[in-house]
## 1
Amino acid sequence: MVKIVTNAHQSRTATVWAGTEVEVIEYGELQDVARPIGSQRVSLRAALRETGGRIEARHKPAKPLADGYRGNDHLSLIERGGEAYGHTPFIRGFRCVAIHFDDALLHDACEAADCTDRFHSRLMFENKPIWAIADRLALECVTPRIGQRLCCESLVGMLAVELARLGTRVPPRALKGGLAPFRLRRILEYIETHLGDDIAIAELAALAEVSLPHFMRAFRVSTGQAPLRFIMQRRVVRATALLLDTHVPLIKIAHDCGFADQAHMTTCFRRIASNTPARMRREHA
């Protein structure tokens, strides 16, 4: 006999980016249970940690999948209102992330990926890029910090497009053009003016008058870079000028240039400039 449990989680942390809810759920010990995991939105569930057992997704509580992926980084995509259950004979602990997508975002993602917008349930499958994005969103959800919205909205948009590509029914067309010149100019001016602010990708898309997935792809075509990378590079350029031309403390430069803190600025400098702010200032003293 399988016991169906409707509220078995031990703890839950949730937040919303780009209209999409991301929730990280921690379960304690479970035995012979099946928990409903469907929702009124298209949702993705990613197993992050299994301890002392295993949980698998099923269409019916008592009917195992015949050919589900057996790795501990399994994913399950569940259609809107779809019936699905997380089942375990026994597990000591389980951590997962559930991502409930905004309908409009998925529709736009399907247009950007040139595929149909009908999402069907697909349980217990493997996809390393999708799992990696879900894992990163889970980390951001449980460790809130200043300036993370820009990163997380980018991740949500990327994830929506990756899921849309899973259901591609027609051959992809050649990559469409970038943003219209006047829209690109408007976006670039806005970024330069607001580098010290918490810039949101969704706001940039609205400013360009296009959907979020379309904006992310068109911006890359126009500039050769993803929006997040471009903005971080512009912040590094501005911070470099302040480092070399002023005696403003590093912590204030980080704040004025839109970094979460001085450590975040140092990380971005290492990644983009292959140097650190402190070393750069010393070398040009």
## 2
Amino acid sequence: MSTYDLIIRNGYVVLPNEVKKADVAIQNGVIIKIGNLLDDTGLEEYEAGNQYVFPGMIDVHVHFSEPGRAHWEGFETGSRMLAAGGCTTYFDMPLNGIPSTIDETALLEKAKAGEANSVVDFGLWGGLVPGNVEELEGLANSGVIGFKAFLSATGNDEFERADDFTLLQGMREIARLDKILALHAESDHITQFLKQEKEEQGLFSPDDYAATRPLLAEAEAVERALTYAEVTGCRLHFVHISSSLAMEKIEAAKQRGLDITVETCPHYLLFNQDTLIEKGTVAKCAPPLREKAEQDKLIALLIEGRFDMISSDHSPCPYELKDPATHNLFEAWGGISGGQFSLQTMVELAITYEIPFQKVADWTAGTPAERFGLSSRKGQIKEGKDADIAVVSLNDTHTVTEDNFFAKHKQSVYMGHTFPCKVTATFKHGKLVYEKGEIRHQGRGTWLRSMAIEPSI
């Protein structure tokens, strides 16, 4: 008989290759034993009661805006929101803070804010922008997870899109540093050309906005980036891919041996262009929500295992930026607020399309951990790994309201949506961070500097 710090009992544990009824024993923040532990005791015990026990989500793509714009979303509110959705680790993008994370000084300033305010673990992306290629080595040495660049306008003056020469220079340097470049892949020339045409005609509707960011704009940018990766040897991660046409090009490049991963986001799978028409600016993002036929193709690609991972691209702002006085959709901030609902979305899709929960765990935790060098510690419910755990009930539904959405600003495309499941508890390192609508543990998360973890595989 053994005594542990915590035993989570009677859950359906989502393991890498199966789901089985089991208890999970935790000691010093680490999973020690999985199985029938009737003869063992815990100093604390949590009754999962036939709920599903998932590995905590690793969200590799969120936009918190601290320092400088914490009134948009800071580490405190943002991390609590993610914890309420079963997320125990996230990577914050480099563009929305002031200063943007484009040099070592800015990185350390952001990390200090994260260490002071985040309730779960986090990593930080560095930025690739015109003029900062010489800063990349310092950022890498200080622990960035990787680098992020935009091929189209970012919407923030502090973080410029990367021109082609900057991309080539940056990719060569990032390859030398053995890092990964994450890319927002939309053609700036195509999107700006089409936007100018619409504005000259006085056309500002949701359909007009979607028409300025067509599938071809994403596919062209993806193909260009893939060509530059072949020239430079740079590893790539494509963020928020929203079209089957872009996926065809990525699949072909993978088959040629390029080192690439690709994510899509829950909002592209759960919503479509009709949602943008119905809900307006809260559903505006870039790339835009696609037509229903394209949404169906993305879901089919997901089921086939073509996407490597799922991330939220949580991109909030004060609501006045979502609702400009001109009521011009082109002037509204383009980002979906909803990082709390990624795991629930994937569980909903798994129920609807009979997808094994093991695949949900892999998309939301396993593959992100492998790709970004966390797999010795995170990504699976397995003996020896961090006790980062999300408990999900299929016996409860969850209707999104302002009261149960933990983000700083409550406007979201998810508002009013009812999930056929509910995150009831989240554990970080074996500590109960969130339970039934409340943040429980007030401890701080750890900055996961890449030099402190094993290389990517």
## 3
Amino acid sequence: MTRASSTVGTPSRAGTRQWAALVVLMLPVLLVSIDNTVLSFALPEISTALRPSAANQLWIVDVYSLVLAGLLVAMGSLGDRFGRRRLLLIGASGFALVSLGAAFAPDAGTLIAARAVLGFFGAMIMPATLSLLRSTFVDRDQRRLAIAIWASGFAAGSALGPIVGGILLEHFAWGSIFLIAVPVLVPLLVLAPILLVESRDPDPGPFDPLSVLLSLTAMAPVVAAIKLLATHGPGLDVLGLAVLGVVSGWLFVRRQLRRERPLLDVRLFSNPVFAGSIVVNLLAILSLVGFLFFTTQHLQLVVGLRPLQAALTLVPGLAVMIVAGLIVVPIVRRVTPRVIVAVGLGSAGVGYATVWLAGAEAPVALFVVGFALVGLGVGAAETISNDQIIAAVPPARAGAASAVSETAYEVGAVLGTAVLGSMLTAIYRGSLVIPAGVPAETGEAARETLGGAVSAAGTLEAPLGRQLLDAATHAFDAGLVATAGVGAGVMVLAVVVALFSLRRASAGD
């Protein structure tokens, strides 16, 4: 029996051991966020070294989150059944080993495959961290603080990732960014069996492989359709993939409603606070990842900053994210969650609008301010939404609820690059005018990605190479401005969702 399920009356308060366990649970959280941020900063070097196509570059970013998101619910259910700590240790071991392989990938295809396997093991890690936190901290006030620290861990990892990654990329090849996993996960493997108490659902339902398959086929084809639409335009393949995803999603929901013990209890979404918190979680992460996707490339490939310099320009925004995630804990006792979340997401919208209105020629300082505003909104929204999500279910279903929360996080990360990134790619390709005299093969490489254009320009004589580079940066910045405008619109939608769906979430809950 878990601690949470054995509590009667007033919940027991956590002691030193439980807070030490939280520190251990933060290690994989830090790793995931470091991995995402570091990869964003390494994209220019990866695009130069491996010469991926535009679609492959998006897959390098997205395949990890895509596989992870597709399996989170299944792994959360497995953790409920076989033990959350056990699954955490298996996932951490596999993640560390595959990271070593990713570091030495010889081509884009191998790197995509390695990132997919990392997503498989990452899916074991993430639901376990939040569900173990739920069973460790029974007292609501302590749990809310623990969740704030947990959510801030993503921001802390994001803040640490660019600095560490920038230093690594200054002195070593891009593959070094994947080696960060080893020193982070080794302490987890040593300390988790000592400090973490195993927890599981005392009465788990049967494992459902068909539901797992449907959850994957509901998500992967839709993201693939978005990418193909951006790189090749509309076609029967895009339509077919989209239809496959929608039909699979419908079959998944239908199956869950008919099963006595579903893989994912979709009835939870009838609770507007739960459903609204999931949407808020997703849109907040979409805004963060989307902003990072175009800003990191702009700072390095257009402005000309080195990786470490570009990383340091975003650290203030990441610091704001950490502070915002922690400071809302005492505020939410007096102010309703929907007001806090709406104000936060409105701040993120202003951050996008700052770049949209100022244009790509804006000084670097404006990008710093814009990202700080995005960080403020994401930090506040993540703490509140995760708290509302896991508070809505009984402790025995903590793994499933945690998986839903993590799925929203990863789907947001996927959509951040799949939607905003694909939009940026489409505008870049459509706006790029190849100067006369550029060989056809070189021009095609430049049209794939901005990184490819930088590399291609280096192979040409100075005047022609400069013309190609100028044309590429102009096309990229046109896409950047349009994408920032769409991002601002998405945040307006998120504010509306928060105001309507979180009306029943009280300040004291």
## 4
Amino acid sequence: MKDLTRGSIVSHILSMAPPIVVGMITIMICQLVDLYFVSGLGEAAIAGVAAAGNAGFLVNALMQVLGVGAVALMAHAVGRKDRDEANLVFNQSVVLSVLFGLLTLVAGFALSRSYMRAVAADDATVEAGTVYLLWFMPALALQFASQVMASALRATGIVRPSMLVQAVAVTINIALAPVLISGWGTGHALGVAGAGLASSIAVFIGVLMLLAYFLRLERYVAFDPAQWRPQLRQWRRILNVGLPAGGEFVMVFIIMAVGYYVLSGFGPAAQAGFGIGTRLIGLIQMPALGIALAAGPIAGQNFGAGNGARVRETFVKATLIATAVMIIFLIVAQLAPGLLLTGFSNDRETMAVASLFLRIISLNMVAQGLIFICSSMFQGLGNTKPVLWSSAMRVLTYSLPSIWLSTWPGFRMEHVWYLSIATNALQASLSVWLLRREFRKRLVTPKDKAAEPADPKPVVPLAREPA
């Protein structure tokens, strides 16, 4: 366990963020590798896998419910030096991860084709996306277990083991992708089914590795079957913190689905370019997101310890670092979008859409970094409802106007991307305002403590003198 209530906050952020970023980038690279090898199967396969991958936002929403709830409550317990409470939250989160994983499998197998019919441009794209989802569902279900274990480690200030496990799992996925998708060395090409199967095998191996780490090396929290009996009070605590954060991912899913919907009239090449572009934007935003995810446990432990000044300092330092990083990547995306897109498709129309998308949407990067930081700070404070409010505001100001714009004569796809810049800036402004309000309500500063009246000295009755 790493005590984040002491020492340099910048040092804590810079030591925790790189392993988090590496872990997330390896996952994104894995998705991009799938798209890279699937690209040889045609536009419908690319568009199908890209659109199917957007369904992962819904599953990520459920994973956020568990992950955010576990990190916040465990970090508070660690800050209070309450190890028993941290273990109880962890074990109840494990039980929830099993339930959520089973729910994901059932819903995925039942609804995959219906989802693809709702967002795909043609029958070939529907078929490709459905096949990919059916083979990818086990990977999504297994990730709940990984999420809980990784969240428990992050709450205690430990991030390197999760990164190493993810890196190994992604390496396995990358190695399996060409074998299963294109039939390298076997002559049996499974196509888009191979992309989903490669991910499922890799995630399964990763879960086993992280489980072995917990059983052998983790000491602060541990699996305890005696604490696996469902405790509804603990579930409510986890869900009260996690559900609004999960709702934020649902909002992202809605925004992405609207993007695919308004592009459906431009054909599969436009959807394929949009899919590639969104994944690359996600990849280059990873450093700022990693900084935000590092700031969350720091804020959480200090909030649990009652140190409001360090919580505020965490927000300021994390914002400055994330902004600097986002400006650097904004410049790269503006000056060399073609370099970032090299190798993902031979279709000129697909690449033109992806390049235009990168140039426009990259203007969101500074505002998006601020949104990441605010979201993580709310998680550290244990109140994620404001995150849901700001995300809902963006859905209303982006999704409905986008659908309306798509009905105009002369509508062009970049119209909704310019709208995205405006709504992102609006969400960032609202997030900062809500966070400042939360700070005023919940944080106690040294000045506040000094203003508190001192405890009156107890009145000690005088002993009666003997007569």
